[in-house]
Design a protein that fits this description.
132 residues, 4 helices, alpha+beta, 29% helix
């Protein structure tokens, strides 16, 4: 029986699903990961602090799946509040996510599955740093 055929017979109610955190291979202090729970005003304040108080020339907002729209909204709000001082640019990617299925009963085996999700990476950069 193939793996696909086996999947048809799995009773997912017998498992607890644990979604792994996506790999952030090159996380830097200027990377901001937007989540569905992230308050927009707090993220705007953090961006402002990193650029204008701590002197970072650029920061990157990262949004995954359902937070893509929120990530775009945050970058647009920051741009509107700082017209003429910053520039934004976006890239998209596809991220592989891993879900672990942990059995609720001892007679079952645990297993993992992978799935793909879209992501957006928005770079916010000081215009003055572009001239350097």
């Amino acid at each position: 029986m193939s793996h696909q055929e086996e999947e048809k017979f799995i009773d997912y109610s017998l498992y607890k699903i644990s979604k792994r955190t996506p790999n952030s291979l090159h996380s830097r202090p200027t990377d901001i990961f937007v989540s569905s729970d992230s308050p927009v005003p707090a993220i705007l304040k953090r961006i402002s602090k990193l650029i204008f108080k701590e002197g970072h020339k650029e920061i990157t907002l990262h949004g995954l799946g359902s937070t893509i729209t929120k990530t775009i909204e945050i970058s647009q709000l920051f741009l509107e509040d700082n017209i003429g001082t910053i520039k934004i640019g976006a890239n998209t990617s596809t991220v592989t996510l891993i879900d672990d299925f942990i059995p609720l009963y001892n007679n079952l085996d645990s297993f993992s599955t992978t799935r793909k999700n879209s992501a957006i990476h928005i770079k916010i950069q000081l215009i003055s740093s572009l001239e350097s």
